[in-house]
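Problem statement: downstream parser choked on a complex file, so we are re-checking the raw output for the 2-amino-3-ketobutyric acid run. The parser issue turned out to be on our end (a line-ending mismatch), but while we're here, posting the original submission so the record is complete.
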Amino acid sequence: MKESILVIGSNGQIGTELVADLRVIYGPQNVVATDIREPGYEMLNAGPFEISNVLDKQNLQAIFEKYKPTQIYLLAALLSATGEQKPKMAWELNMEGLINVLDFALTYQTKKVYWPSSIAVFGPNSPKNNTPQYSVMDPNTVYGISKLAGERWCEYYFLKYGLDVRSLRYPGLIGWKSAPGGGTTDYAVHIFHEALKNKTYASFLSAETELPMMHMEDAIKATIGIMDAPAELIKIRSSYNVAGMSFTPHQLGEEIKIHLPEFTLTYLENDPRQAIADSWPKSINDDFARKDWAWHNQYDLKALVKNMIDNLK
Ligand code: AKB
């Protein structure tokens, strides 16, 4: 059967790379990129693009009616740092956007829906190290609360209506092809651009703040991997823990110095993103994803830093 794939929120950090890879696999015409804003020249000319607003049901329905998607990737969301500045807007976009898409997916008999969750579903009382799939979850950011609620909705639509929804809890994502926006883990991308341009970077997270991270290539592989897996292998219908590596700003800085010896790293104080990072896990246990649908990552810190510097140079 011919696939019609809809990517909602295609201009963001994940969408930019995901659309390009899906178009290689399924053919450019079968992957419709949609976002609330027009994309750059490259995306606009690489395949179909539509303006979409997940909060505008009429607009969304017109897109479903036109393309009758067989698969949907819903990536439109406000991330953790922006969410704390605009809590009501984050809740509305992250929650109502999800429910609108799940409802239209049912109406238009979409085969599979992908929705990203995050390590932000964990909170200050979750275990910090090797955080298990199932544990205390008490997120204290609006973003985290919306992701945890979203996970419950995804599982609910699967159990109640049989909608094939699949999801991953992304750690911080680091890639050289696209820029992050509004997250707490964004420092780990900005640091590379500044290291190459100005040989120095001021981290808004403290030297010893350890967080789970992943190379974008691994994240895209996991995303397409879980969507391609046979439905019976997807045992968890809320969202899967997935892990790549964990490091602190200091450890990242030291690894960058191996390639750029003149690089210096300084630290800002009193940034509101520090409290968000302090509420999150340091490392993640992803045994369920590895066992259920054979997830495995490729990049560790060494390989990530080399790849980022080689490509951004
Ligand atoms: C953020 O920092 O908000 C995101 C995430 C970990 O979900 N990158």
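For whoever reads this later: Residues 87-107 form the longest helix (21 residues).
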